[in-house]
Amino acid sequence: MLETVLFYVFATIAVVSAIFVISRPNVVHSAMFLAATLLAVAGIFLTLHAEFLAGVQVIVYVGGILVLFVFVIMLIAVNRSQSERQFNRQWTLAIVTATILSVEFAYVIFKGQDSLVLPPKVVTPAIPVAGNSQLVGTALYTTYLLPFEIASILLLVAMVGAVVLAKKKTASED
Amino acid sequence: MVPTSHYLVLSAALFTIGVIGVLTRRNIMIILMSIELMMNAVNINLIAFSDRLQQVTGQVFAIFVITVAAAEAAVGLGIVIAMFKNKETMNINEIDLMKW
User: Fold this and answer.
1) For A78, which of A94, A143, B49, B61 is 20 to 30 Å away at the CA?
2) Window A:20-49, CB contacts with B under 8 Å
3) Distance from B2 to chain A by nearest Cα, in Å?
């Protein structure tokens, strides 16, 4: 029961703040509403028994990516952009595209709803199952070891790329 | 017990909001934020099915999605800073150097 209530509360917060993210003229307000959405999504992960992912979501997204966003906004924010027109001229086309997309989603979810019924409750094993972090860690370091290493190389490349993109030009390059 | 389809509806809603943000806004920062919204929607789907099937694979994939999101944010914001140094704007309509 509590799970159901929490799901609807978090879902409402997530969707409403997501709408505010894309509709506020001020970029800083958008970033704050994005933080609300990300925290609500972390709560939804908790209702899905993914405790490790909820922690990662808060630490990496809210603590890392969002802080990066806010830093960049502080560095380059132009007040001029607030008084300008906020939306594209092609917004009618965009709304049509989004409508088609949501109709597709609605159709697919409606058609597939029957296959999403939960199976009968699994009998709880005599030995207590391992915690969520332990399960994720075991899968990450055994079955998915190669993708894990590739992800680490991706992060290294992204770090080097970001440094190269943002650094000052030296005299020899000019 | 919340049915899995409700999680899918939530995920679809967040994804659609992200698409609308990318297609309609002119501020590049908000476009990047909308992309993060879309990645979160995908993560909700992955974890909902991970819970539904009682398998941990979905959560491992969600970790990879978060990794890619972090890399994308770092490189994307680096590009924004480099662009701002050249053009002094965050408006994507004014960044049309490669437009034919």
Assistant:
1) A94
2) 21-22, 27, 30-31, 34, 37-38, 41, 44-45, 47-49
3) 6
Yes or no: say if B16 and A105 are a contact pair by the CB < 8 Å rule.
yes
Provide the token pair at A58. 């808060």
Contact between B63 and A56 under an 8 Å Cβ cutoff? The reply is yes
Per-residue pLDDT of chain B in tens (100 residues, 90 and over written 9): 788 888 999 999 999 999 999 999 888 899 999 999 999 999 999 999 888 888 889 999 999 999 999 999 999 998 888 888 888 778 888 888 787 7
Give yes or no for a contact between B50 and A50, defined as CB atoms under 8 angstroms apart. Answer: yes
Distance CA A30, CA B83 (A): 21
| Distances from the Cα of A174 to the Cα of A31, A98, B82, B84, angstroms | 36, 45, 15, 18
Distance CA B47, CA B59 (A): 6
B91 beta partners: B27
Chain A residues 141-160 with CB within 8 Å of chain B: 143-144, 147, 151, 154-155, 157-159
A75 to each of A115, A148, B25, how far by Cα in Å? 50, 33, 21
